Amino acid sequence: GQTLALKGLEKRYENAVAVDGVSLVIRAGEFLSVLGPSGSGKTTLLTMIAGFENPSSGQIMIGPQDVTFVAPNKRNIGMVFQRYALFPHLTVAANIAFPLRMRHMSESLIRPKVEAALAQVHLGDYGNRYPHQLSGGQQQRVAVARAIIFEPPVLLMDEPLGALDKKLRETLQLEIKGLQQRLGATVVYVTHDQEEAMTMSDRVAVVANGRLAQVGSPLELYRSP
Ligand code: ADP
Ligand code: ADP
C-alpha cells in the first residue's frame, strides 16, 4: 500500500458544500472507514480521491505523487461501488480482466491472473458466466476481484455491501478484510453502518456536513463520550 494524504479538500456546488475542508493522512496498509449519514459528503470525498470529480480546492497525494488532477486510470486506484457496476455484456472473467486489458497486458499473463482472482473470491467455476446469472453476493465478489486484479496500492469502496443481507454482509466483510491484508492495500471504506466500520477498520473517520467530526481507532471512538 501507499500513504494517501488529503489536504484541505473541498467540493463546492452552486447550492451546497459537499466536502468542506477535509485533511487526513491514511497510512500505507491502513483500513480507514468513512462513517456518516446520508448527505454528509462520503461519496463526493471518494469520487474526488478516485478522480471522477475535481476538488474545488485542496490536494490529494498518493505516496510522493500529487494526483489531484491526474486522470482516474492513471492513479493506480481500485474501486468498488455499491451496485457492483459490472459490464453486463462481458463474462465474469472478462469483467475481471478488464483493468488488465486497459493496461495492455498480454493475454498469456491475463489468464493466470484472472484464474487466481476467481479462486480468491471463491468463484473458480464462474468465469464463463454473465453477471445476471450470479447472485448479488457473487456479483459483488466479481467487483472486488476486478478492483484488486492489478494489485492497486489504494482501494476505495463505496458501501460495497450495502445491497446485501446481513449474513452475507458479515461473510464478505471477512473476505474483504482478508484480501486487503494479503494485498497490503490502503483502504478507504465508505459506510453508514457503524458496526461495520467498527469491526473492519484500523481507524474510523466520522463525517458530518462535509467535515471530519472525529477520527480515531474503534476503541478510541467507543470510549469517547
Ligand atoms: P453521502 O455520500 O454522504 O450520502 P454525498 O457526497 O452524496 O453524500 O453528498 C453530499 C452533499 O453534496 C449532499 O448535500 C448532496 O446533495 C450534495 N451533492 C452531491 N453531488 C452533488 C451535485 N452533483 N450537485 C449538487 N449537489 C451535490
Ligand atoms: P473475451 O471474449 O472478451 O475474450 P473471455 O471471457 O473469453 O472474454 O475472456 C476474458 C479474459 O479472461 C481472457 O483474458 C481470458 O484469458 C480470461 N478467461 C476466460 N475464461 C476464463 C476462465 N474460465 N478462467 C480464467 N480466465 C478466463
From TrEMBL:
<dbReference type="GO" id="GO:0015847">
    <property type="term" value="P:putrescine transport"/>
</dbReference>
<keyword id="KW-1003">Cell membrane</keyword>
<dbReference type="GO" id="GO:0016887">
    <property type="term" value="F:ATP hydrolysis activity"/>
</dbReference>
<dbReference type="GO" id="GO:0015417">
    <property type="term" value="F:ABC-type polyamine transporter activity"/>
</dbReference>
<keyword id="KW-0547">Nucleotide-binding</keyword>
<keyword id="KW-0812">Transmembrane</keyword>
<protein>
    <recommendedName>
        <fullName>Spermidine/putrescine import ATP-binding protein PotA</fullName>
        <ecNumber>7.6.2.11</ecNumber>
    </recommendedName>
</protein>
<keyword id="KW-0472">Membrane</keyword>
<keyword id="KW-0813">Transport</keyword>
<keyword id="KW-1133">Transmembrane helix</keyword>
<dbReference type="GO" id="GO:0005524">
    <property type="term" value="F:ATP binding"/>
</dbReference>
<feature type="domain" description="ABC transporter">
    <location>
        <begin position="4"/>
        <end position="225"/>
    </location>
</feature>
<keyword id="KW-1278">Translocase</keyword>
<dbReference type="GO" id="GO:0043190">
    <property type="term" value="C:ATP-binding cassette (ABC) transporter complex"/>
</dbReference>
<comment type="subunit">
    <text>The complex is composed of two ATP-binding proteins (PotA), two transmembrane proteins (PotB and PotC) and a solute-binding protein (PotD).</text>
</comment>
<comment type="function">
    <text>Part of the ABC transporter complex PotABCD involved in spermidine/putrescine import. Responsible for energy coupling to the transport system.</text>
</comment>
<keyword id="KW-0067">ATP-binding</keyword>
<comment type="similarity">
    <text>Belongs to the ABC transporter superfamily. Spermidine/putrescine importer (TC 3.A.1.11.1) family.</text>
</comment>
